[in-house]
């Protein structure tokens, strides 16, 4: 199945200037361009086990819905990780040492870095996300709040070759990767991603990463099936996004949200299950679904601390510290390139 495989491609970044600040914002045009997205979506949808890569959740509406998920009572991940970062910000900064630039893949609303900026005091922050407009707004807000910080947003798909602005390569680099976003990769993909980052950033660079831990299935099932139905709306929104990219006629209300903890595989899975027999037309083709057919939209892999340390070690990262909450539901782990 090719649908979820990571691809690797060189691209020529296009530089544009933020009207507000004149600061360079680099847009990786080929990465997020419509032709590439169309091809990737169709490959996934036509696979034997149809899937849509979870990055397609994040158009502007999807990013807003995710921001709402972060405040839901069932979604323990955001508040637990934010608590770990704010409770330990001084110790974290002392452990990390001097940091020239912070690079954050999947930065979204740039919320979590706020917990560290005072104590860490980097000169440059490169938030990177696929959701361009949402990222630009978040970056502008951060600039206004932290005037001494150079904020250089980068619209890019982190599944592909990353090319950082020159300013991000001056001084010691920290890759900040919170949100359990690493869990959206399979363990093999996560290892591949971390190995590539280690190579890109170089010896001595740091990695501060949020990793969700094993826990009771009931807590996990509740976190991805909230009572208000925000996660269901977030899941279905991926079809609105697919409609725009493919010029298709998915009817999101004809698909049920399904999320469950697959305990043997240590991952939450999200699917959209066709509630009727239906044919979806897109420009240049069609997709048939029987009632009960499903499209996988997300994995969220959970780890033990030890298993994640081992995974990262194979990818070239040495574990130096780990912070958790009192229930050991979530971990923030620190590594350096060997
Ligand atoms: C789980 S959210 C985490 C957001 C934020 N880092 C946090 O901790 O709350 C994942 C973020 O990664 C971004 N994202 C997902 N896949 C991506 C990809 N392939 N390339 C770039 N950004 C991606 C999404 O737009 C979203 O902002």
Q: Would you mind describing this structure in some detail?
A:
By secondary structure, the protein is an alpha/beta fold. The protein has a domain at 14-216 and 305-337: Vaccinia Virus protein VP39 (Rossmann fold), CATH 3.40.50. 34% of the residues lie in helices and 25% in strands. The protein is built from eleven helices and 15 strands. The chain has helices spanning 29-32, 34-45, 60-69, 76-87, 89-96, 114-120, 132-145, 187-201, 217-223, 230-246, 305-314; strands at residues 14-17, 24-27, 101-105, 124-129, 150-151, 154-155, 173-177, 206-212, 255-262, 267-274, 278-282, 285-289, 294-301, 317-324, 330-337. The longest helix is centred in the C-terminal third of the chain and has 17 residues, at 230-246. It is globular. 44% of the residues are buried. Bound molecules: S-adenosylmethionine. Residues 55, 58, 63, 66, 70, 78, 106-108, 112, 129-131, 157-159, 178-179, 181 line the site of S-adenosylmethionine (SAM).
Short structural summary:
The chain has 338 residues and is α/β, with parallel strands linked by helices.
Tell me how many strands there are: 15
Q: Architecture of the domain at 14-216 and 305-337, according to CATH? A: 3-Layer(aba) Sandwich
Bound molecules: S-adenosylmethionine
Report the major sheet: 10 strands, mixed
Tell me the name of the CATH class of the domain at 14-216 and 305-337: Alpha Beta
The percentage helix is: 25-40%
The CATH superfamily title of the domain at 14-216 and 305-337: Vaccinia Virus protein VP39
Count of DSSP helices? Answer: 11
Shape estimate? globular
Low-confidence stretches: 1-22, 24-29
Q: Which fold does the CATH topology of the domain at 14-216 and 305-337 refer to?
A: Rossmann fold
Report the span from N to C terminus. Answer: 33 Å
Q: Rg from C-alpha positions? A: 20 Å
Overall residue-averaged pLDDT value: 92
SSE run: EEHHHHHEHEHEEEHEHHEEEEEHEE
The helix-and-strand class reads: alpha/beta
Strand content: 25-35%
């Amino acid at each position: 199945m090719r649908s979820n495989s990571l691809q690797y491609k060189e691209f020529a970044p296009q530089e544009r200037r933020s009207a507000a600040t004149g600061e360079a914002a680099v847009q990786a045009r080929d990465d997020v361009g419509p032709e590439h997205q169309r091809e990737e979506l169709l490959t996934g949808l036509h696979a034997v086990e149809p899937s849509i890569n979870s990055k397609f959740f994040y158009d502007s509406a999807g990013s807003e819905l995710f921001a709402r998920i972060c405040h839901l009572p069932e979604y323990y991940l955001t508040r637990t990780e934010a608590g770990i970062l704010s409770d330990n910000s001084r110790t974290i900064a002392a452990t990390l040492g001097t940091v020239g630039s912070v690079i954050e893949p999947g930065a979204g609303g740039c919320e979590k870095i706020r917990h560290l900026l005072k104590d860490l005091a980097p000169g440059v922050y490169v938030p990177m996300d696929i959701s361009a407009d949402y990222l630009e707004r978040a970056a502008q807000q951060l600039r206004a709040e932290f005037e001494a910080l150079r904020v250089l947003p980068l619209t890019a798909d982190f599944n592909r070759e990353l090319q950082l602005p020159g300013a991000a390569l001056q001084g010691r680099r920290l890759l900040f990767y919170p949100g359990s976003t690493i869990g959206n990769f399979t363990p093999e993909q996560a290892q591949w991603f971390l190995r590539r980052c280690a190579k890109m950033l170089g010896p001595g660079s740091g990695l501060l990463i949020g990793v969700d831990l094993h826990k009771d299935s009931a807590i996990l099932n509740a976190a991805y099936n909230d009572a208000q139905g925000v996660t269901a709306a977030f899941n279905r929104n991926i079809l609105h996004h697919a409609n725009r990219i493919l010029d298709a006629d998915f009817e999101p209300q004809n698909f049920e949200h399904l999320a469950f903890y697959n305990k043997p595989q240590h991952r939450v899975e999200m699917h959209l299950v066709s509630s009727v027999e239906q044919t979806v037309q897109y420009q240049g083709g069609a997709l048939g679904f029987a009632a009960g057919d499903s499209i996988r939209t997300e994995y969220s892999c959970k780890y033990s601390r030890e298993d994640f340390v081992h995974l990262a070690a194979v990818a070239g990262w040495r574990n130096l510290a780990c912070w958790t909450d009192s229930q050991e539901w979530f971990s923030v782990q620190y590594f350096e390139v060997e």
